[in-house]
Amino acid sequence: MAILSRLIEPKSLFTNDVLLICADDTLAGFTGHLLNTFQQRGFHTVVRVDHGELDREAIQASMLVIINISECYLFSPPFLDNLAEIVGEFTKERKARLLLVDVRHPTGTYAQALTPYNNSVEPHRIHKWLNALTTTHAFVSHFQRCGVKNEEQCIEEILQMVSQHFASIIGVNPRVREVIGLLYLESDDGVHVVGICGDPGIGKKTIARGVYDLIAHQGFHNYCFLDNVGNILRERGLVHLPRMLLSEMVGNSVHTVGNFAGTVGNNYSELGNLVDTIGNNCIEFGNFEEGMSVIKHTLNQKKVLIILVGINHSDLLKPVVQLTDCLGPGSRVIITVQDKCLLESLGIKKIYEVK
C-alpha cells in the first residue's frame, strides 16, 4: 500500500505513491537521482523505462505519475504517442495525477524539437504530440527546468510540488490538519514542540508521518523522521540519538554538506566527513552530552523539523526534550508517546491526544 494513500486515504487502492516514467538516457542520471530522493523522503516510488509500450497497470496503481521528458523521449515517435495517450486519459478522467518534467539541457521550444518530423509524420499526429507537451491545466502540471541553477535545486522544487500536489489531490486527514495547526508554522519565533499521545496502535505514527510528508519541504533547512526511537535508545544507549540525528539530517538537507561543521570533543571537521564516519560506524561519542554539543554546533542556527516516534519512558524523554536548546529559531519537534502525563511532566503544553 502506498505510504501517502495509506496516511490520508486509507481505503485507496493505489500501491505506489509515485511512478516515474523516462527514457533510457536519464535513468542513470536525473531520473535515478529523483528516485533515490523520493525514496529517502518516504515516498513509495517505482520507475518504468518507456520502450514504446505503456505499463497501464503501473499507471493505474500510482497516485502520481511523473514523466521525465528528455531528448531521447522527443526523438522517438512511439514515446510521443504514449505521452499523448497518457495526457489524454488523465485529462478525460479529470484526475490531477500527472506531472510532466522537462529534463532537457539546454531546453528549446517543443515546436522546434518536433520540426524534424514535419516531412515524415502526419500533421494531426504531430499536433497531438505538441498539445500533450504544452498542456498545463488543473489535471496536468508541467515543470520546466529553465532557470533552475542545478539538479539538486530542481529535485527539491519537484519535491515541493509533489507535496503540494498530494495535498490538493486528496486533501488532508483532519487529525493531520489539527496537529499542523498546533505547530504554528507561521511563526519563526523560538522552537515549538508538539506531543502526540494515545494508546498503542491508535495511529500516532500515521498522523506524525502525515504531518512530515506535508510540511517537511516548507522552508526547513533540515528534517528527519525517526521511528521506534525508544526501543533503539534502550538497546544502544542514549548516546546513539545524536548519531541518528546527524546521519538523517545531512541526508535530508537542502543545503550542501560543506555548509555545516561539527565538533567531536576539541576536534573540528566538516560535517560531511563526520557523517561519512558515522555511517561507517567508525566514530563513537564519549557520552550523550558530547554528541549533543555536535548537534548544537551544527544546527543552532538552522530551522529544522524533527519527528521522534515511540518514546515512552521518562528517562529517555527528558534528554530528548533538551534537544530543543540545540535548534535554531522556527524549528519544530514532534514526539509521540503513549502516556500524556509524560509530556505534561516535562512542560510540553501543545499536546494532541489521539482517541
Terminal CA distance reads: 24 Å
What overall form do the CA principal axes indicate?
elongated
SSE-based structural type: alpha/beta
| CATH class group of the largest domain | Alpha Beta
Per CATH, the superfamily of the largest domain is P-loop containing nucleotide triphosphate hydrolases
CATH architecture of the largest domain: 3-Layer(aba) Sandwich
Give structural notes.
With 355 residues, this protein is of the alpha/beta class. The chain folds into 2 domains: 2-171, Rossmann fold; 174-353, 3-Layer(aba) Sandwich (Rossmann fold). The protein contains 16 helices and 12 strands. A 5-stranded parallel β-sheet has the order 2-1-3-4-5. Strands 7-10-11-6-12 form a 5-stranded parallel β-sheet, sandwiched between helices. The chain has a two-stranded antiparallel sheet with strand order 8-9. Strand 8 and strand 9 (267-270) form a beta hairpin. Helix 9 packs across helix 10 (204-215) and helix 12 runs parallel beside helix 14. The radius of gyration is 23 Å and the shape is elongated. The two termini are 24 Å apart. Residues 1-12 and 252-283 have low confidence and may be disordered.
